[in-house]
Design goal:
The chain is 70% helix and 0% strand. With 128 residues, it is mainly alpha-helical.
Length: 128
């Protein structure tokens, strides 16, 4: 369950300069990380489908993907000692209005989980 932090600002700038094409790669990376930390093998968490299908479904798949991300993140956050809250609605609205902001918000949550997982020693704080 090891995921690495990613530079959200740099990814957002690259996404902006490539007119959203890098967003496909970023979505792929986010979905790969979420799949690692959740173990979810559903089609919604297939990185290739998550990156490509929003193009063909007028972003409906992307909105559903954002909802799924919002549901997975709290469980993953709790597993590393953080208090996670369901941000599904926020992610869905951001994905509908401006997908780059949705990816940035999801990436920020994943970065928090990645950072916490490097210091978290378990529910007993590393003691037996």
């Amino acid at each position: 369950m090891v995921i690495k932090e990613k530079e959200t600002i740099i990814f957002a700038v690259i996404d902006l300069f490539t007119c959203g094409l890098f967003g496909l790669v970023w979505t792929f990376l986010i979905t790969s990380d979420l799949k690692k930390i959740s173990g979810d093998n559903s089609s919604m968490m297939n990185p290739a489908l998550a990156a490509i299908l929003p193009l063909f479904t007028l972003n409906i798949w992307g909105i559903l993907w954002a909802r799924k991300c919002g549901q997975i993140i709290p469980t993953a956050a709790n597993n590393v000692g953080l208090t996670g809250e369901d941000k599904s609605i926020m992610f869905m609205v951001l994905q509908f209005v401006f997908p780059m902001f949705a990816r940035a918000a999801i990436q920020k949550e994943l970065n928090d989980i990645a950072l916490a997982s490097t210091y978290y020693k378990g529910p007993n704080n590393g003691q037996k």
